[in-house]
Amino acid sequence: MSETGSISIHTENIFPIIKKFLYSDHEIFLRELVSNAVDATQKLKSLAALGEYKGELGELKVRVTVDKDQRKITISDHGLGMTADEIKKYINQIAFSGATEFVEKYKEKDAQAKDQIIGQFGLGFYSAFMVAKEVEIWSQSYKEGALTAHWTCDGSTQYTIDEPTGEHAKAERGTDVVLHVAEDSDEFLEEARLRTILTKYCKFLPIPIEFEGELINDTTPIWTKQPSDLTDEDYKKFYQELYPMSMDEPLFWIHLNVDYPFNLTGILYFPKVKDELQFQRNKIQLYSRQVFITDEVKDVVPEFLMLLHGVIDSPDIPLNVSRSFLQADANVRKINTYITRKVADKLAELFRKDRAGYEEKWADIGLFVKYGMLSDDKFYERAKDFVLLKSVSGKLYTLTEYTEHIQANQQDKDGNTVVLYTTDAEQQHGFVAAAQERDYDVLNMDQVLDAHFIGQLEQKLEKTSFKRVDAATVGQLIEKEEAPASVLSEDDQKKLEEVFTGAISNPAMHVKVAALSPQDAPVVITQNEFMRRMKDMQRTGGGGGMQMFGSMPDSFDVTVNANSPLVSKVLADGGETIAKQAFDLALLAQGMLKGEALTAFVKRSTELL
């Protein structure tokens, strides 16, 4: 039998469109063809298990070979094969009727529509024509008495199919797809290039993949196994296999395994992440039935968990997945919610079972937890019980524990609890020490997200405000009933303000005289808590309305202590020199005295001594 016909796609220019626009990356052809070969093999195994195929299975392996001289790539399987009629059904009749609409969409090069069409109409086999000028199929069906089917197409809509016999027939069950590589695709004749593609997409396929005599895949990766069958070393070894350049072991991991209401397996690792918000996005790999799809998993994994590493495998996600599919698909949304819950459950379990061990890991996992609380209200509700706050003393508290710890001593005259914090305990040491002298506790809030986290806690916690220790003088941070009275008259206070304003001569510094304790510093420089916090949030991606704060010049309050003996000396001597010296001391305490001003301060200090 020999037959020539036209492929039923209802349009003459489908193949140029496939070749130019169907896939953004031509290397995908190998993934598609190897995946088809694996499917054919697995189908045969299923038929054998059901008793519908009683012959010998033999060695079920997919082989990929390249012949650079002959310009051929061959993908061979030992699966169920196809008859000539089946080839005409599955290969020739591309399964869609709206081909004309398809062509029109591709003329607009709509990437999202393009990806949807690939997945919807099963055009994976035709990706071969992106790199081949001619494609042959040699197939021998598992069915008893079936003849070899030989199909040839040169990239036009014309094909030839025949059933060779004798020495020209295929000797074994299965299918060989032979690509005659086009002149513009020489790169795919290089063994190293093909090996790279196979390693990327086929590394964990469930059927052995052999390339030039070498097995390139692990057919049973650990995410397909039961956690009870795995050791910690198995998980760590797999992590190193996924990320061979990583120098650190993961902190811990979560083994995902759910079959209702969607199918999902995988392993998520918590890596060590210290001070920086390291958005290393290409770390979680997305698979569908062990075939690599993408490492862009933004819509599958919650944004705050993009810092995790690992593998997610779901047959509910098609190989040719589009961004629009991920955003719209109900199963993807369920997967997203499920992963969030599993991570929260794991963290809660670690905290509950081993508080000391959890605290040891807090420097690494705190970023995940805070980011999650900021990103997801449901995660906040779960995490509020295991998020930790760190005091400058080094002790860690839960939100409830810390509120109870400071409530008695750090309430202001209106009954509000005031949480004091530092963003740099060393630079703000003087302010921290002043707070501690009054038995106030001070939190370390020095992570990149803490400015946002503080704002969230103020919204969530009742009658609670946060103030950085250098946002005001220690007496003004937590205003009590017993405010000290000024020893100066109103005229003296006004004169004092004028002297300091003249000595400072800086419009960014706003001088005010206040009655503080005689033991407090003579001059304190602070920045408005709201303004400084808005600037901090803008610098860490606050966006929106906070952009205006980032562009505004810095503004500081200079509080002159009316009850300080040194301030009284300024009034008595009428000297701007002492005022300037007191101001420079305040700058020095804030780490703001530098360059020429610092040199002048040192010289003046020597003279005053």
UniProtKB/TrEMBL annotation:
* Pfam families in alphabetical order: HATPase_c_3 (PF13589), HSP90 (PF00183)
**Record's SUPFAM superfamilies?**
ATPase domain of HSP90 chaperone/DNA topoisomerase II/histidine kinase, Ribosomal protein S5 domain 2-like
In which domain of life is the source organism classified?
Answer: Bacteria
Q: What is this protein called?
A: Chaperone protein HtpG
Q: What are the alphabetically sorted keywords of the record?
A: ATP-binding, Chaperone, Cytoplasm, Nucleotide-binding, Stress response
Gene source species: Hymenobacter setariae
Residues bound to ATP: 32, 36, 77, 82, 97-98, 120-125, 175, 323
What gene is this protein a product of? htpG
Q: Which family does it belong to?
A: Belongs to the heat shock protein 90 family.
The terms under GO molecular function for this entry are: ATP binding; ATP hydrolysis activity; ATP-dependent protein folding chaperone; unfolded protein binding
Keyword Transit peptide set for record? no
Q: Known NCBIfam families for this protein?
A: PRK05218.1
